[in-house]
Amino acid sequence: MGRELVGAIASLWRYPVKSMLGEEIETSAVTPVGLAGDRAYALRDVQSGKVASAKNPKKWAKLLDFQASLTDTPNGNGLLPPVKVSLPNGKSMTSEDPDISKILSTALERDVELLSCPPEAPTLEQYWPVVEGTVHQDAVTQLLMPMGTFFDSCSIHALTTATLARLQQLYPDGQFERCRFRPNIVIKPTSHEITFLENDWVGGILAIGETVRLSIDTACPRCVVTTLAQSGVPDDLNILRTTAQYNNVIAGIRMSVLQGGTIRRDDPIWLEKAV
Question: What is the extent of the structural domain holding 187?
Answer without folding.
Answer: 2-273
